Each structure stands twice: as C-alpha cells, then as structure tokens.
UniProtKB/TrEMBL annotation:
Gene Ontology molecular function, alphabetical: oxidoreductase activity
Family indicated by similarity: Belongs to the short-chain dehydrogenases/reductases (SDR) family.
One Pfam family of this chain: adh_short_C2
Organism for this UniProt entry: Raineyella antarctica
Highest taxon, organism lineage: Bacteria
Lineage, highest ranks first: Bacteria, Bacillati, Actinomycetota, Actinomycetes, Propionibacteriales
Signal sequence region: none
Name under which the protein is recorded: NAD(P)-dependent dehydrogenase, short-chain alcohol dehydrogenase family
Keywords: NADP, Oxidoreductase
Length: 263
C-alpha cells in the first residue's frame, strides 16, 4: 500500500505562517513531502520563522502577503499558474488582541472579520481553479480552516487576571463564523471533488502568555488532559486533513483541545 499520509508532489499554501502555530503547520506538510508556500504579512518575521525549516531541507517558499489585500488573490493565482494545481489551502491568519465587550472597538471587529472570514472566502474563490485542477488530476484537494475553542464555547473571564488580558469577543465570533463557512463551502465544493474542513485548537497560549505560570495552570486545569497544547500537537490533525488519508472526509470540525469543549 502507498502511504496515505505521503504528500510528495503536493502544493500547499499556509497563511499565518509566522505566528505561534503557523511554523508547526508548515512543517507538518513539508515534512510529508509537500511544497509549501508560507504566507504572512511581515516579510522579515516570516523569513526568520521559516529559516529553520529550510535549513532542515524542507521545501518551503516564503510568500509575504497581506491576505486582506487584493494581492492575496494574485498570490493564489500565481501559485496555481506555477504548479498547474493547488492541493491544500490552510487558512490560519488571525489577530491577537485582548479585551472585553466593554473595551472592544468597531475597528477591531472589522479587522478580525476581514482577516479571518473575508480573507478565507476570498482565498477559497481565488484557489478554486487550482483546487479543481488537482481534483481533475486525481487528487483530493482540501481547504483547511483554523478556528478556535472560543468559536465553540465562551471564554471564562475568571481565567484571566485583567480585563485587557481576556480573549476578546470578536475573536470567538469570527472563529465561529469560520466553522459555519467551512460547512457551507464543503457543501458547495463537494461536487467538484474539493473538500473543506476545519480544525479547532484549544489552549495553545502564545509565548508571551507562557511567562505566567499561574495562568498556564488555570488553562491546563480546564482540559481533560490537564495540560496546555504545544504547536506540534496540531501536526497530526493538519496532516490527516491535508492527505489522502481523509479523502472521504469533508464538512467536519476537528477539535484539538485536550477535551476543553467536551465537558
């Protein structure tokens, strides 16, 4: 049998590639043999995040781009033109502010919606020709959207020391929208042989938050496994959804949250 997780020859695009979780997702695909176009707004930060992967011999291409700009569609069209297909589009771009209902601003809601939801919608549209080409060639192309546990459940304000440090309301709102957009797109694109799924990470606190051991203990205590997530904990879910191993899987959301949303 051929390896169902082998991505040799696969062409992938990953957004949010320079963030806390992005490099591990890029590595998961590239280590399985994919050529990965890594996307992030800040070119210098992207280059620094991807350098260790390239030094390890992985086929990773820096693709600096603001996914809220018209250049996002141009980039996806260029990738399709270069390779003749697109097998994986992983939408991971997000914004990382804190706040509450009282402190959130209209501008923050607009920014979060544009970055998480509108860019995903635009990206699916621009990637569709490449995904169709991959399906026509006998592949099982897929869009993978990265949601959050706070798209399924509310953040508990008691976990946070300050109002400014809480998870803000627009974050969960746009992540919930991504799960529904995943279902909608899966239904529409299924007849074309294109799959669409989402992943819901649980507590994967950013590096800055990890400087507070008490906060980490509170987060860990809310999971069934009594620990926080590590970026590499997402790799097997990404690889499964991106590979032929999940060729009959579409329209689903996969929580990778240590049981947080199952209580």
């Amino acid at each position: 049998m051929t390896d169902p997780f082998d991505l040799t020859g696969t062409i992938a695009v990953v957004t949010g590639a320079s963030g806390h979780l992005g490099p591990a997702m890029v590595a998961a695909l590239a280590e399985a043999g994919a050529t990965v176009h890594a996307v992030a707004r800040n070119a210098e930060r992207l280059a620094a995040a991807m350098l260790p992967l390239r030094e390890a011999g992985l086929d990773v291409v820096d693709a600096p781009c603001d996914v809220t700009s018209p250049q996002w569609a141009d980039l996806l069209s260029a990738v399709t033109a270069e390779h003749g297909r697109l097998d994986v589009l992983l939408n991971n771009a997000h914004i990382g502010h804190g706040g509450s209902l009282r402190t959130a601003t209209e501008e923050q809601f607009d920014e979060a919606y544009a970055l998480a939801v509108k860019s995903t919608w635009h990206g699916i549209g621009a990637a569709r020709p490449g995904l169709r080409a991959a399906a026509a060639a006998g592949g099982s192309p897929v869009v993978v959207n990265v949601s959050s546990m706070y798209g399924l459940v509310a953040p508990d304000p008691r976990l946070y020391d300050t109002e400014e440090g809480r998870n803000p309301p627009y974050y969960g709102a746009v992540k919930a929208a991504l799960v529904q957009l995943t279902r909608y797109a899966a239904a529409e694109l299924g007849p074309e042989g294109i799959r669409v799924n989402s992943i819901t990470p649980g507590p994967f606190p950013a590096r800055a938050a990890q400087a507070d051991p008490a906060f980490l203990r509170r987060l860990a205590g809310r999971t069934m496994l009594e620990r926080i997530g590590r970026p590499d904990d997402l790799q097997t879910a990404v690889l499964f959804l991106a590979s032929p191993a999940s060729r009959f899987v579409t329209g689903i959301n996969v929580p990778v949250d240590g049981g947080w949303t199952a209580w």
